[in-house]
Design brief:
Chain A is of the alpha/beta class and about 290 residues long. Chain A has helices at about 15, 20-30, 50-55, 55-75, 80-95, 100-110, 125-135, 135-140, 165, 175-185, 205-210, 210-225, 235-250, 260-265, and strands spanning about 5-10, 35-40, 75-80, 120-125, 150-155, 190, 230-235, 255-260. Chain A has a four-stranded parallel sheet, sandwiched between helices. Chain A has a four-stranded parallel sheet with strand order 6-5-7-8, with helices on both faces. Chain B folds into two domains: about 10-100, Fumarate Reductase Iron-sulfur Protein, Chain B, domain 2 (Orthogonal Bundle), CATH 1.10.1060.10; about 105-165, no CATH class. The chains are: A alpha/beta (about 290), B mainly alpha (about 170).
């Protein structure tokens, strides 16, 4: 199975709240020679914060149904969201390695005429760019006139690298994989205090106790601001939303927030109109 | 002694069965509490939650708001010197709490959206418009465009009892 052709898992927040992330991802991957296949009829991953918290069996059954769509098309799955990555990767990992669990979930899927064979792989955009496409291919696409020099706060989020005993992508305490891509784009990734801390939104905290979520966000933003960054670069639409909408709710900071795909769009010299930046609650002037 | 809390040794077994396999390995060092970004802002103490789970202080756990202050960031899970998979323990506890009807209305609403529409957020007219402007399909090719797909998601929620569960009933 060639991973130059991938099943593009859309999820919810990207296509419905930040479609600019979707158009940027499609454009930049196309220019890098990747073919994206539509996973027709896919649903929410489903959102781990609520679904996994409520009932882990339902969480895995819905996730496994999504995996069968890619499986039946003969492709692996690509996601640009840490939450979707959590649901889909974790489910694939467990079902691909645990026959009992696979049987249990397939008993549920049988009721809807589906069967998961336990062979599909799920890849995260950042990992895919770094390990499949490579830094040189990315560097080659950067247009020298892609805007002024930028200092970025790279935000990894939680479920891209953790739990690391399952994900095995990079060391979550001192990761470099995402920073290397940002630097390959000619953007300086700066150190800041407590880099690697949760944005505050996950686990259902934003929905249930938004004030607590915002306190965490505020602390991160304070640390980013102290490091003098021009922009926050994320790899998850939910972290993206928390930083973008969060700054509007906090009524302070005003640091533009870009998903990696949007930063790539800018640096590849893509038409700015294609990036969908006008829906950002924190204005993006770069 | 009327206020004394009765530990329930069976409780930890249920946590293990629910996926929190490593709950009994905790020796209360507090690395989890020291690493918790949520605990930095609130009175949530991960170490205490794990101890209560070991002891089986059921009501203290399942009825508490603390259980829902974890963002599942996995920092404690990564750093635990005993290899306690703390997020898995918390997920097992949350599943138990929900089965007892302890769920926030905001969470219930998200669960309802997923089980009835297949997505956790809705597609508004302005989203469609922007999608079109960006050169994307107005409606994403998900369950929104494939009614059989949505029926499958609904059926899964019926088979697992999720649809009853989120109405506050038991599974």
């Amino acid at each position: 199975m060639s991973d130059k052709k991938m099943g593009f898992f859309l999820g919810c927040i990207m296509p419905m709240r930040y479609p600019g992330i979707e158009s940027s991802t499609r454009e930049v991957l196309k220019s890098l020679g990747v073919e994206l296949v539509e996973l027709k009829g896919a649903s929410c991953c489903p959102a781990p914060g609520v679904t996994r918290s409520f009932d882990q069996t339902t969480w895995q059954a819905i996730a496994a149904r999504n995996l069968t769509i890619a499986q039946n098309l003969g492709v692996n799955v690509l996601t640009i969201c840490n939450g979707c990555f959590d649901s889909l990767f974790e489910t694939a990992h467990q079902l691909n390695h645990d026959e009992e669990k696979l049987k249990k979930i397939n008993k549920i899927l049988k009721e809807v005429g589906a069967e998961y064979k336990g062979e599909t792989h799920v890849r995260h955009f950042v990992e895919y760019l770094h390990n499949e496409i490579g830094l040189d291919a990315i560097k080659n696409k950067v247009k020298e006139n892609g805007g002024k020099p930028l200092k970025a706060a790279v935000h990894y989020g939680c479920h891209f690298l953790k739990p690391s005993n399952v994900k095995k992508i990079d060391n979550p305490e001192r990761p470099v994989i995402f920073d290397e891509i940002v630097e390959a784009l000619g953007v300086k990734s700066v150190e800041y205090k407590d880099k690697g801390t949760c944005c505050g939104a996950g686990g259902g905290v934003r929905a249930r106790t938004p004030d607590v979520a915002l306190k965490m966000t505020r602390e991160n933003l304070t640390n980013m601001k102290a490091a003098g960054v021009d922009v926050i670069i994320d790899c998850c639409p939910f972290c993206h939303l928390q930083y973008d909408v969060g700054q509007a709710e906090l009524k302070e900071f005003g640091i533009p927030v870009l998903h990696l795909s949007q930063l790539m769009g800018l640096r590849f010299g893509l038409d700015k109109e294609k990036l969908g930046l006008e829906v950002h609650k924190t204005p993006v002037k770069l | 002694m009327s206020n004394a809390k009765k530990p329930d040794p069976e409780f930890a077994k249920k946590v293990v069965e629910g996926g929190g396999k490593t709950v009994n390995l905790c020796f209360q060092c507090g690395t989890c509490t020291g690493s918790c970004p949520s605990g930095r802002q609130t009175a949530f103490r991960t170490r205490k939650l794990v101890r209560r789970a070991q002891l089986g202080l059921k009501d203290d756990i399942l009825k508490s708001d603390d259980l829902w202050l974890c963002t599942t960031c996995f920092t404690c899970y990564e750093r635990c010197p005993r290899g306690v998979e703390i997020v898995d323990v918390i997920m097992a506890l949350r599943n138990m709490a929900v089965r007892e009807g302890n769920m926030a209305p905001q969470h219930r609403k998200i669960a309802e959206l997923i089980s009835t529409t297949g997505h956790m957020v809705n597609l508004r007219p302005e989203d469609k418009e922007l999608r079109k402007k960006l050169g994307l399909a107005e409606v994403p090719p998900t369950v929104l465009l494939v009614p059989e797909g949505l029926e499958q998601v609904k059926k899964i929620c019926a088979v697992t009892g999720f649809d009853v569960l989120i109405k506050g009933g038991s599974k």
